[in-house]
Amino acid sequence: MGILVRDPNIDRMVRELAANDGISLQAAIGLAVERELRRRKERFRQIEDAVRVARAMMGNRPVIDDGLTHKEFFDREYGDA
Questions:
Q1: Do 81 and 72 form a contact (C-beta atoms < 8 A)?
Q2: Nearest 5 degrees, angle CA 37-CA 31-CA 33?
Q3: Count of CB atoms within 10 A of residue 14's CB?
Q4: How far apart are the C-alpha atoms of 36 and 39, rounded to whole Å?
Q5: Are 35 and 17 in contact (CB under 8 A)?
Q6: What's the CA gap between 54 and 62, in Å, rounded?
Q7: Would you list the DSSP string of 9-33?
Q8: Terminal Cα distance for the chain, rounded
Q9: Lower CB density within 10 Å: C or N end of the chain?
Q10: Rounded distance, CA 42 to CA 39, Å?
């Protein structure tokens, strides 16, 4: 199976990566894709960790129900009541 790169900028970047690392074009593409997938996985893990921390913090807060609808609440908050 082949990959056709028609974008000259992408072709230039792949060739530059291959030349810098002394690897084939195929290896350069594989390396770039591997690094990007690893970067995305790490970013997703960081987001999951942040969400976990936020949920833990919010889980310790009491739930307050004053019986108001959203409209009633915002009317009160903005002085429209």
A1: yes
A2: 35
A3: 19
A4: 5
A5: no
A6: 15
A7: HHHHHHHHHHHHHT--HHHHHHHHH
A8: 68
A9: N
A10: 5
